């Protein structure tokens, strides 16, 4: 869990239509035990709290996907939508929903931020036991592909939550293993790798911020965890329980122990305290941003488009390839195949680095097509305009 030794969890959810530049959060009550209080907004730059979205005190309406009907839950149960212990949260930016899990349960809940209706996904893929801290799923985030991902404490289950034809499907992607170079900083050990939270990168990999302050990069290709360092600049006994990427591309971390939020540079792992709230009990954080997505790319290919999740009405097109010359053109198609936009790109010294605005396009998915002087497609990439 995050860890079972640590008192409270707060779930900061990713920025949504209400908080364009902030997070959502699961917050705990001001006690020394695990005690869910509410889901709320938090401003991602200052660390100040915003409005409450959903709380432990309201009467919730829960619809069971499996039983196809409204169900009545016991709020004090470890397997309810308002369970006392919460540890994992993600923001589904494509549907404007919060996805979360009680700490001691395999149930998955989806909160519609517009209607406040909750969908229960009875998940029989995860094997969660309340008495087995290895099995507790404590890290969750939206992936760059739009799916939701979650990992248990010991890394033995890496779940993908996918929406298909209106139904949520859960897949177990397998076990995450330590890289040999990790040594004593094991991802699968209680003191060094358990708990915390995770964020996603534009390279389709993930970064896990363990409760200990250790940071691991998770490679999807070979399902390995590589220790990349320990966060510097936070108090010695600071328990990292939430993490989310802000609009500057940095990671904001939060604690279940009633402590300030910190902004962490992922390259240096140096943390700087945010000026906002000083004693929030935060169990988890989530946002709509991704590592290496908002800032200039570091290891992008010579032809690329970023970001692909467009909430500020523009994309950047970068072409740095001496073999690509002449009249470069951008075409945009909706999912029916209709062309909705086209524009010539300007090449300068064998490089294009241009910002393209989509002020007149409605929210939704589009295909961006880049062609060279001969009309040959050199890049096709799907984008999602959220506004």
Structure description:
The protein has 387 residues and is an all-beta fold. The chain has 2 domains: 21-286, Neuraminidase (6 Propeller), CATH 2.120.10; 303-385, Macroglobulin (MG2) domain (Immunoglobulin-like). It has one helix at 190-193; strands spanning 10-11, 23-28, 36-42, 49-55, 62-64, 69-71, 86-92, 97-102, 108-112, 118-121, 137-142, 148-152, 158-164, 167-172, 177-178, 197-200, 206-209, 214-219, 224-230, 242-245, 251-254, 262-264, 271-273, 282-286, 303-306, 309-310, 314-320, 328-334, 339-345, 351-357, 364-371, 377-385. The strands form 7 sheets. It has a 6-stranded mixed β-sheet with strand order 6-5-10-9-8-7, with no helix packed on it. Strands 1-24-2-3-4 form a 5-stranded mixed β-sheet, with no helix packed on it. Strand 12 and strand 13 form a beta hairpin.
